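User: Study the chain.
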Amino acid sequence: MLDITYVRQNPDEIASMLRNRQLASEEPRLQELLEYDRKRRELVQRSDEMKAQRNKVSKEIADIKRTGQGSGEELIRQMKEVSDEITTMDAALTKLETDIEEILLSLPNRLHESVPAGKCAEDNVVFKAPVSYLHLLDFPIKNHLELGKSLGILDFERGAKITGAGFPVYIGKGARLERALINFMLDYHTEHHGFTEVFPPFFVNQDSLRGTGQWPKFADQVYHIGEDNLYAIPTAEVPVTNLHRNEMIETERLPLSYVAYSACFRREAGSYGKDTRGFLRVHQFNKVEMVKFTRPEESYQELEKILMSAEAILQALMIPYRVLLLCSGDISANATKCYDIEVWSPAEEKYLEASSCSNFEDYQARRMNIRFKPDSRSKPEFVHTLNGSGLATSRLMVSLLEHYQNRDGSITIPEVLRPYTGFTSIDQITS
């Protein structure tokens, strides 16, 4: 959430940000916010003046009664009118503050100066050129669906029968490979990158979604359990970032670095017409998430570290990838700067997003009231929060299966995963 003081002092910058994000239609809401803020400040000033007057006259009434110099009835009548007016103003203030917060919650974050201007995904910039690894595929390439079926390790049809489209079933060595990926990534981030592992709940309350920015803006993307008013998490970012909601973090503990595995649940509303085959777009998938809490002056340095941590996984797996710097028209509403890591799919002949690494500055911390004190003499400040997928397994599995397939239809297991799988290949089913 943006700071209303900053918005008030920099309205032209916020309007420019909305246009850069291709959200010019939101500018009337900005003007509405500024008008609400002006009225609120006027009401606060008037209310404070009247409360001061009421306190002063109340003292005069008490003095009159104490000295017996009169009943003070006229003053009492006047103060009753003043008190009624104060009550009316306080109600109007509450309404204005609710309206202000509603608009602030809907406004996107500021953009870092390094974010390139652009209208859509086609305008994203290749930040790091494709990193390739030599796996010779000089035979007809099968896609991950064909491989999963022929090897008996993935079953999307039965998943659809059990639940619906977009809910995959992993079987046998497929399930073991998925678990191996998760455990490998958790171990790698904790042992090599200094993250503390967290195993969070997979359901959260509305305050948690609100804190990380998924509510109310992306309410149509989350699964809701109405009876308990709980929500299935779209990412472990939500519960992990909310670990420190309404807390003052000791300065010496910063930066805090957490890594967590979770299943992720997304309705993918509005995905009609997009490629939804297999793992390309699913409603349930697994992901290892990195979350950081930092001092403001360190957050962009920590963003680069998160990016390198995610890249290290792909380098260890020897999976081809590239890094994009998202443009102003494609970056998420919550982020000030974001890198996407895309893995190469030989069968699809295109890159697939497997990770996003973002800096939110104080946008989430302001919503969640997560602060620190730079020193004993300073006022509390909001921390900066960051997150990065390290990584999502669904599209990573697409690239891994297709990249490591052999002429006979088997899959070679990457060397770093073998201690976790207990096998070196997944072979064709023989009758």
